[in-house]
Amino acid sequence: MNSVSASAKSAAISVHSSETRIGATPILHEMDLALPPKRWTSIVGPNGAGKSTLLRVLAGLLPTAGQVQLQGRPLSQWPARDRACQLAWLGQGEGGGEDLTAYDVALLGRLPHRSWLAPASAADHSAVARALHKTQVWELRDRRLGDLSGGERQRVLLARALVVEAPVLLMDEPLAHLDPPHQSDWLTIVQGLVAAGGAVVSVLHELSIALQADDLVIVRNGRIVHYGSCADPKTHAALQAAFENRITIHALEGGWVALPRAPRPM
Ligand SMILES: Nc1ncnc2c1ncn2[C@@H]1O[C@H](COP(=O)(O)OP(=O)(O)OP(=O)(O)O)[C@@H](O)[C@H]1O
């Protein structure tokens, strides 16, 4: 299963856990996953499979019966500020800061780099400007977050995650509300992060985009049922099986697309 797995020590981020519960309900079982640097990994699977829960465990947002390691060191042993510089997070449908300008929302991502009560430095401002340009929201920088459209807002929140400049970036449904040109921009950003040595982990429902990643983690019923390269036919077979063969996968322009299987004519 783990043809591309790194060991926990050499991984950018890893989880080894027997069970994760939300309240009294067991949600994830026997998670053993080590994701290497310099790769983009997409987490996919049916609705309710546990993808977002797995990402939250990796981010340290949900306790688990086991251990998460970041850069080879248990998450719990990282000083909070250092950890926040190493691990950036873009959650699903994040709220908060509605009255802040887009610029100030992005600047929040620099907080881990700043000393207590210190004003933003020139480096902070240039990181924000770079991220707002990359995500195509520089022109919107003085608008309130609460006044932006869904896609504009998502791009500001992506900028906030990018300004952390962390070597590990976790994103839950980062393409929500993004139109195809902005999805394409997102792909360019991810490729740039990976080329610079980063580990990018994204939960995605868009299987054709997920298949453009380096590796795929397939989750079903709270378990990792496959982890492998997107180029591996075994990964395609596992993906089809995870979706009960209700998708088909086709080669296209050097990559793959996944389509819902058309119902048989009556
Ligand atoms: N707060 C909660 N209390 C109880 N069960 C929860 C809670 N949050 C999530 N769950 C359950 O945990 C399971 C996994 O949820 P999760 O959000 O991780 O799935 P997912 O794979 O990301 O789903 P989707 O594709 O629908 O976004 C689901 O059955 C969900 O109903």
Automatic annotation (TrEMBL):
<dbReference type="GO" id="GO:0005524">
    <property type="term" value="F:ATP binding"/>
</dbReference>
<keyword id="KW-0067">ATP-binding</keyword>
<keyword id="KW-0547">Nucleotide-binding</keyword>
<dbReference type="InterPro" id="IPR027417">
    <property type="entry name" value="P-loop_NTPase"/>
</dbReference>
<keyword id="KW-1278">Translocase</keyword>
<protein>
    <submittedName>
        <fullName>Iron complex transport system ATP-binding protein</fullName>
    </submittedName>
</protein>
<comment type="function">
    <text>Part of the ABC transporter complex HmuTUV involved in hemin import. Responsible for energy coupling to the transport system.</text>
</comment>
<keyword id="KW-0472">Membrane</keyword>
<dbReference type="Pfam" id="PF00005">
    <property type="entry name" value="ABC_tran"/>
</dbReference>
<keyword id="KW-0813">Transport</keyword>
<feature type="domain" description="ABC transporter">
    <location>
        <begin position="13"/>
        <end position="246"/>
    </location>
</feature>
<dbReference type="InterPro" id="IPR003439">
    <property type="entry name" value="ABC_transporter-like_ATP-bd"/>
</dbReference>
<keyword id="KW-1003">Cell membrane</keyword>
<dbReference type="InterPro" id="IPR003593">
    <property type="entry name" value="AAA+_ATPase"/>
</dbReference>
<dbReference type="InterPro" id="IPR017871">
    <property type="entry name" value="ABC_transporter-like_CS"/>
</dbReference>
